[in-house]
Specification:
heterodimer, A: 168 residues, mainly beta, 8-stranded antiparallel β-sheet, 12 strands, B: 173 residues, 4-stranded antiparallel β-sheet, globular
Chain lengths: 168, 173
């Protein structure tokens, strides 16, 4: 029986870096229905974790709506065209230990007919809990995913794992 | 090919109820863990609170809560000292009958020497005006690998029959 949930690639950072890129252009990696990306990371500076598809830097192609709480204030917001990325809340700046959990669900990523939607969760008990829905207004199949920090850099030991989910 | 997403253990609470549910001797061969639970207790209230104890630790290093109740979005934290990680609310005895909360816990890199962060999604729903949809962030500031997970009501109530708990392992290679 074919596997439903399969690992595609994992990066465990050997040193600090500002981004990682998943190349999913191969036929095998285009055969799934949805993608799940799990990041467990920290940053050395304040910022956000962002996602860019197929090298598309067109600002107007990205938008998102988010909900977040930091223990004191619950807030919601919306952004469009933010530097050509889908942003998902703050990275963790506590480098005592890697603490932020990001989980991204990218549905129907390999079709050529619909815009691509991302559901994201961000959990860091020392910063905030957040959820976001993001939209990439492009009907192209997603063949690469760039995960970027707007802070300083992801710390060594941060992990990024990409999984494919097959609906049939 | 090894299975990526695998059921490690399950627990369906029987007729006598249970004071807690524990997954012990967790295999150290996966990358992440996920617990999916459907829960109700006999706490004499519409809700109860679930604590998560990793490796038997009663320490709550930090819990940060975000929830919506149909009227507004609320947040609280950091919470400490609850006798475990404060996972969130679930249905108590006075909530709508036959209604169980749904909760998911995701623990990445549970065997690593980093602190253990937990991402929680939960719903406490009932056919009444009060209900919650929660997104919580927990942290156990311990570098030990997670070998056991205990789920226990903070009120010392009894988890009711038909509550279910499933522990999954996810492997990234």
């Amino acid at each position: 029986m074919a596997a439903t949930y399969e690992p595609i690639a994992t990066y465990t950072l050997p040193s600090s870096t500002t981004s990682v890129t998943f190349d999913i252009s191969s036929t095998a990696n285009q055969s799934y229905t949805d993608l799940v990306l799990v990041a467990n990371q920290s940053d050395t500076g304040n910022g956000y974790i962002g996602m860019q598809f197929n090298g598309d830097t067109t600002w107007s192609n990205y938008s998102g709506t988010w909900l977040a709480g930091d223990g004191s204030t619950a807030r919601s917001g919306r952004y469009t065209g933010s530097n050509g990325y889908l942003w998902n809340s703050m990275v963790n700046t506590n480098t005592t230990s890697i603490q932020t959990v990001n989980i991204f669900h990218i549905m129907n990523y390999s079709n050529n007919t619909t815009y691509k939607t991302v559901l994201a969760r961000n959990s860091n008990a020392g910063v905030w809990a957040a959820a976001e829905v993001g939209l990439w207004r492009n009907t192209a199949a997603i063949t690469s995913i760039l995960v970027q920090t707007s802070g300083t850099s992801f710390v060594s030991g941060s992990t990024f794992s990409l999984y494919g989910i097959k609906a049939a | 090919m090894a299975t990526t997403y695998e059921l490690i253990a399950s627990n369906t609470v029987g007729s006598g109820g249970a004071s807690s549910v524990t997954f012990s001797s967790i295999p150290q061969t996966f990358t992440d863990l996920k617990v999916v639970a459907s829960i109700r207790s006999n706490n004499a209230s519409t809700l109860d609170v679930l604590l998560l104890q990793l490796n038997g630790s009663t320490v709550n290093d930090n819990s940060l809560l975000l929830w919506g109740n149909g009227s507004s979005a609320l947040t609280s934290g950091p919470r400490t000292g609850d006798g475990g990680l404060y996972a969130g609310q679930f249905n108590g005895a006075n909530s709508t009958a036959n209604t169980f909360s749904n909760t998911e816990f995701y623990i990445p890199n549970y065997t690593s020497s980093n602190y253990k962060s937990v991402s929680v999604d939960l719903v406490w729903e009932q056919n009444a005006s009060a209900a919650y949809d929660g997104l919580n962030a927990l942290m156990w500031a311990n570098t030990a690998a997670v070998t056991s997970i205990k789920l226990i009501p903070s009120t010392s109530s009894t988890i009711q029959q038909y509550s279910t708990f499933y522990l999954y392992g996810i492997k990234n290679s």
